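Workshop exercise sheet. Pairs work together: one partner reads the sequence aloud, the other fills in the structure field after running the prediction. Swap roles for the next sheet.
Pair: D.N. / O.F.
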Amino acid sequence: MRNSFARTLFQIAQQRPKVFLVVADISPAGAMAPFQEQFPDRFINVGVAEQSMIGTCAGLALRGCLPFAYTIASFALYRPFEQIRVDLCYQNLPVTIVGIGGGVSYSALGGTHHAPEDIAVMSALPNMSILAPCDPAETEAATWACTKRRGPTYLRLGKAGEPDLTSNAAEPFQFGKVRFLKRGSDVCILSYGPIMSLASEVAASIEECGGGSTALVSVHTLKPLDAAGIVRILDEFETVLVVEEHSENGGLGAKVKQLAWESGARCRLHAFSLQDEFIHVYGSQRDLWDAHGLNAEKIVDCVMTGV
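Structure field:
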């Protein structure tokens, strides 16, 4: 996803001379070398100074430019939160904050590099939009969508190695709309971001176990959320699952539960998310998912037993 974003932004910059890339420290920007080499006047590295990164982007936006702020998610959001809120959201400026490694993608680097509550934090800000694509192709579509926004956007990306999940998708990408990747009639799984790969495994296992025809849906736009589309899913399916790499507080699961209550949904609804705690586990991203109870066996068992 990181490389897909880099390639796409480079293509956009070739067409749009006002696109800027502002990074905080060069380390997460290795994939951006072609951009830096061809457009040195539009590549700004502020160093380890995330507040300056956001402030610089705000200034560029006020001058009619289209800036992208790019660094590791935990540093892109938490250190400069005041600047995001006041400089970007209060003034409704067209700045895209690209957070690499949302959730626990930077697994082995520990809690300082994790962003398990990023969607909840950004969702609380007026004017902020949130995009969380699930694979490289959806990342490309989401990056183009960011260039069309008139206000601030948080683009939440995985780190690397995400598989292709959308090449045969049942529906195209559309900003602000849920997207069926696979059609089904009995169970529907809502997910987003890199953990969509786990959701895809769950969908296949449910069908193999005789749990029913299973649909897979990418909720790539988390704000503005496609409330109408989700309510239709809650009405059409007997069982709905939410699988997300985010805290149980303020994530997609909580929002779907709210919509289910408000719409009087009668389906079985289960949400699987990161636990509301710092879990001190060293290992891969999958190891951390397992530590939080996010594994295919547990989710499939929930569907098959109804518990």
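Discussion prompt: The domain at 179-305 is CATH 3.40.50.920 (Rossmann fold). What would you look at next?
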